[in-house]
Amino acid sequence: MAEDRAALTRQVKEASDIVAVVGGYLTLHSAGPVFKALCPFHDDSRPSMNVDPRWQNFRCWACGKKGDVFSFVMEMEKVDFLGAREVLARRANINLEGDAGPDPHRLKLLDAMRWADEQYKECLVDSPLAEQARVYLGERQLAGKTVRDFGLGFAPLSGDWLTTKVRKAGQDWQTLLELGLLSERKEVGGFYERFRDRVMFPIRDMRGQTVGFGGRILPGSPYAARSPKYYNSADTPLFNKSDLLYGIDLARHAGSSEGYLAVMEGYVDVMMAHQHGITNVVATMGTALGARHVHNLRRYVPRVVLVYDADAGGTSGVDRAVDIFISQDVELAIAALPPGLDPCDLLVAQGPEPLKKALKYAVDALDFKLNGLLAREESQGIAGTRRMVDAILAILALAPELPGKAGQLKRELILTRVAHRLGLRLETVWARFGELREKKKNEPARPAAAATTNSQEADAPRAAPAPPLERQLLELVLADPMLVPVAMRSIQPDDLVHPGLKRLLDALYQMMALGEPPELDGLRARIADRALIEWAMDACERGRQITERAHYLNRVLDGFREQRDGQGKDELKSKLSAAAGDHAAALEILRKIQNKPATNDS
Ligand SMILES: [Zn+2]
Q: What is the distance in A from the centroid of ligand 1 to the CA of 332?
């Protein structure tokens, strides 16, 4: 399986000619053996970026951005390596489904999730313990098919239902603890169940694998008064509230054909929409729509429609949507529902037509904001207009900028529209925008709404330069994966001093152990630290310049051995001075230093 994964990465890379891929984003001009383009990663006025079909790489001579086709897509789409691989696989019509992800710990969590999912589901369908839950779902007007499609389950009230099953099935307690399905009893020992008397909504990733649960307490439950209505399982490597979308597995195909996905707030809203034939619908996990959500949605659709519940959201939801619209490469529109109704109520009361209409007439986020401001300020004369301009431009000036040409176009578009809608001269709007942006520069940066900064990147150790031997070792094994097993026989990751290089070597060995080819692209799939990966890519390039790599590697390994022996001798010497009073011990140590066999006369 591991080998399949590496083969898949290679297949994607081979199917993604860099000229064709970059040409899909930028206009390329042929210049001899290479192509030139305006660099999208800095404010480029001359074509500074070279795209080289022979080496399948790109390089900007002005800002220094460079790399292969994966690096380009990572920068362009603001995705990680796996995200880039997915983008390119889709482009080349290569199916990545069934790629289970590289991490054995992750697989273990997924297995336990699948098991728990089955237990809850079975309980809802068959168990007398779930009678009230079945009644509740019927009252909510959810059809049996909908409940099955979304895989709903039930966690009964009795405190030992799941723990008994765990014991019988021999499931791993620790894993279920980590998933947040069980908790440890502090004083008396043992475990208790986190979900009791709750309808379980499995939260699935885009492949339909259950990665977490949302549990809704039964309205008649003895716990109903003193615990939250909805409750989620723990954040784990599988489950992260800020990037998962409920229903994405069932909605993404409909989204692609409709050209947009609609985002709601509740699990039941999504289910009810599906039940009424509106299937391009997802929900966030009780959090506001964030940059990571948009980023995930953007993989499937160019346009996102936020279903906006006027009562619940207030204007902060709209401002946030405008913020996202500005800072992300996405079309974002807002569909307003009739006051007082959430999507589920609306569907149950009036069928699918009103919701369909609301989605169809969704208003672009910026216009939605402008409409609201105009309604409020229109009669307020010049002062009102000024407040409106500032309200909009402040959001624009504060939002993290979309980089490159796309960002520039979006700014122009927004300012033109603001000027037009408010009946102002374009120059006036630009001037005010300039003032606000200047002011922003002088203020301390606020945490960006768009999570474009990679925390790993920020944390990347700007470590001291690696010792030459360690650097040479990595250059060789990165350029030539066939040499990894050779290195493995005499060098351990712990022999390396440099933390980054140690991590790279360790990952290469792990890949070997899993039967995965220890290649750079595989490293990129498992290490998210961009600075480190960039270093590895450069090292690989340097390694490829070296001829007779196997021979060179032997010299490097000799170097490590000498170093180790030298250290060993140093240690022995210090023991020697410690053993100065003990003649026999001192002699033995001396012999070791001189590599002489022990004599029998002592
Ligand atoms: Zn550049």
A: 28
